[in-house]
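Q&A log
Question type: sequence-to-structure
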Amino acid sequence: MSFAPLTPIATLLTDLEVGRTSATALLETALERAADPAGEGARVFVHQMTDTARAEAEASDRLRRAGVAPRPLEGLPISIKDLFDVRGHVTTAGSKVMADEPPAEADAPVVARLRAAGAVLVGRTNMTEFAFSGIGINPHNGTPANPWDRDTRRIPGGSSSGAAVSVADGMATVGIGSDTGGSVRIPSGLCGLAGFKPTQRRVPTAGACALSTTLDSIGPLAPTIACAARVHHVMAGEPVRTIGRRSVAGLRFAVPQSLVLEDLDGTTAQCFEAALSKLSEAGAVVTEIPFKELLEISEANAKGGFAAVECYEMHSRHVIRAPDLFDPRVVVRIRRAGEQSAVDYITLVRRRAEIQAACNAVTAPFDAVLMPTTARIAPPIAELEASDEAFAKNNILMLRNCSVGNFLDRCATTVPVHEPGSAPVGLMLMGETMGDDALLSVSAAVEAVFR
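Response status: OK
Response body:
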């Protein structure tokens, strides 16, 4: 199963505007790819919203024919992760234990904003149960395979696994995911996509089944940074605007020498070093910094961090009444909440604020901090399904670098920097808190060097 290179939103909107395609045609192509028995559609979607999607596409086409000014996402097929409320649907968040919950009475704010912007919602995408892993394996719904090396069937990354594969395989133009420790950036990086995690408060998390109310953020998985920016602006309730084109020449990049470069596999290390060289050759100023403050994040999270205790608070009734319905590798992480006392949690809140302040002082002189998005390329699904030890080790290595941005409440992107046809490797750029537009502009400049 093979597809043409991913088409950016700007190209699709032009094609729609001049009549080279239609919203209905784009949707039917996406549905055909999802239905292909040789493809991943059955594992990508937990529910396809076919009837409503066709109605939305037809309505979009009628508006164009009537000469109504197009909305920012007019007629574009977009997938949404299974943790967002959609009116009339049960929000299962990748879990069997949620199947008997009542349907949502209203769309989550981000879903409502996507609809209002003209998006055609294709379906709800598969995910790690309760978004609690960076691997993307789901024993209840199956696991969609990474678009690279389909014969081996490698992990897509998590927790927004179906979102990434829906875009990579042409089942959606953009996928909407959540990011608590990298759940947008990890699958984007492993599947060769652009991904964006905004500063948490930029996009409302209401109506999304939470993993951690402290760390959760909402972001897009997309063909390019410009695509991600356009969708982000819609979800943030902000005017859609051009993020600006600039050169990388003169941009100042910091490369931490603590934590984020440890245990890299050969492919990732080689791609990262080549990416730094290419940026330097293009005129960027790349500076290695100790950044030992990052080591304090691991120490602060030693008892499970925010996610375990906050997830347990939200789902304790399910853990108590039906623990056997959980993915065993998820419920064991939720139960780590028992390691924390109230004093531990309050201490963690205080330590986070202290570490944020210290890190802000270190990175203030730079346009972005660079690191590999993940420490490894995507391993085989079967290898991790067969071994708890391999799963745990790889999960830590997938989450480690990305989770820095969530703990610090920074915006962050990932852009692909691998050679075409080789294992996808992402380069992560971390910006400052509320420096989202500046980071998107810098990321687009970096992306242009590699595209």
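Response note: The mean pLDDT is 97.
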